[in-house]
Amino acid sequence: MADSWVNSAERIGADLHLELTGPGGRRAALIRALREAVHSGRLAPGTRLPPYRSLAADLGVARNTVADAYAELVAEGWLTARQGSGTRVAERAEPLRPAARVPRKAPPRARGPRHDLTQGTPDASAFPRTAWLASYRRALQQAPNEVFGPGDPAGRAELREALTEYLARARGVRTEPGRIVICSGFAHALRLLFGGGVLRGPLAVEAYGLGFHREVLAAAGVRTVPLPLDEHGAQVDRLGRERAVLLTPAHQFPTGGPLHPERRAAVIDWARARGGLVLEDDYDGEFRYDRKPVGAVQGLDPEHVIHIGSVSKSLSPAVRLGWMVLPERYVGAVLAAKGEREAWASVLDQLCLADFVASGAYDRHVRRMRQRYRARRDRLVAALAAHAPHIEVTGVAAGLHAVLRLPPGTEASTVKAAVWQGVRLDGLAAFRHPATDMAAGDGLVVGYATPSEHAYGPALEALCRALPPP
């Protein structure tokens, strides 16, 4: 005979463990176990118990033992028995409840910002769900069986071929599918290049840039050396003994503006002379508003530039796909650093993006968002002209953010005032390299792409209320 019983979900609907131990035999033990289960709430009012024949078989006892236990509990009011509905826990049977306690008041939740004007994020509400779903369906239906097995660490050939055509047409990149390696974004590319031992520091970087990227490099043991900036971009003539430099030549982040043509040529000459390398972060190269697109630096010398891009700005950071366009001599080392399987982007997402690009849906989406973000940029400029004409706006010819130049000494207080107005944004100082002696002045980095369309107007009003007076 069993000393315990666990019912099946088919009989009661929820697992129940009964301990049949103690004095008085099986009948008394079963009565005690059922009382305890009801008393503690493990058997809720209305719960149907298994037929006594089934329970007797599970316990290995006589049917009369279970029938007598049921009958006694019915008589005591713990259970009810009706023809056709079986034996159930009585509705009036109250489970044991803990002593009443004064409810503890939850601590107040920190009030989040009502308006998000942080940089680097596209309008999430504008993600092309219908077109993306259509591409995903086509990609899944047309995918050969081998797609669902071990793949190529370089990435799917379909995506590398689509990117070869697109990058040549839209960004002036010169490459071929065999020199493209798919990754999950720019930070992943840095980890592969430096954490994987493909490249070593020190690395020259722009004096203002994303601190997160510097943290990724520092974690890989790479020392970064800041390059000063001016209205023409990074001062590449200040490059020292470094063998590589990281630049945002199409649209310097965060100060704005492209790298001057003479400096583009000069950094290529430097790389050739020293056997060096330019890492080109093309983070928002598709979004140009007031001038013709600036082609990628990679087009000037594919053997001395690693061109890195992703869809985090053009589509969504939720689509974890990016690419490295590599000089031929680095392809093997990057694939070795990537490993056999672990550091791969989703193959199905790669196929979807390949179809999205090849079908023209990606171009259509970029054109649509370029128009939307230009209108957003224009609304920002108009609002400032109307309510804060003393605030200069820079870096607005391209990209997804603008820099608002503030009177000296007002940046920290303005960021605090923005918080009081429910606006989340960044001050320019947050992007300053800790080792640079360059100061770009006080300013705000305002991302005008992040809010949804209906939230953008209130966000601008709140921003203007936070700005310092003339």
What does this structure look like?
- The strands form six sheets. A seven-stranded mixed beta sheet has the order 6-14-13-12-11-7-8, with helices on both faces.
- The protein is of the alpha/beta class and 470 residues long.
- It is built from 13 helices and 19 strands.
- It is elongated and about 100 Å long.
- Helix 12 packs across helix 13 (453-466).
- It starts with a strand and ends with a helix.
Quick structural summary:
The protein is an alpha/beta fold and about 475 residues long. The chain has helices spanning about 25-40, 50-60, 65-75, 130-140, 155-170, 185-195, 210-220, 260-275, 330-340, 345-360, 360-385, 410-420, 455-465, and strands at about 5, 15-20, 80, 85-90, 115, 180-185, 205, 225, 230, 235, 245, 275-280, 305-310, 320-325, 390-395, 400-405, 425, 425, 445. It has 13 helices and 19 strands.
Spell out the blueprint of helices and strands.
Layout lengths: L3 E3 L10 E3 L5 H16 L11 H8 L3 H14 L2 E4 L3 E4 L25 E2 L12 H14 L14 H15 L8 E4 L2 H10 L7 E4 L4 H9 L4 E4 L1 E2 L2 E2 L9 E4 L13 H14 L2 E5 L23 E6 L11 E4 L5 H8 L8 H12 L2 H27 L4 E3 L6 E5 L5 H10 L2 E2 L1 E2 L15 E5 L5 H14 L4
Helix pairs in contact: 1-3, 2-3, 4-10, 5-10, 6-7, 11-13, 12-13
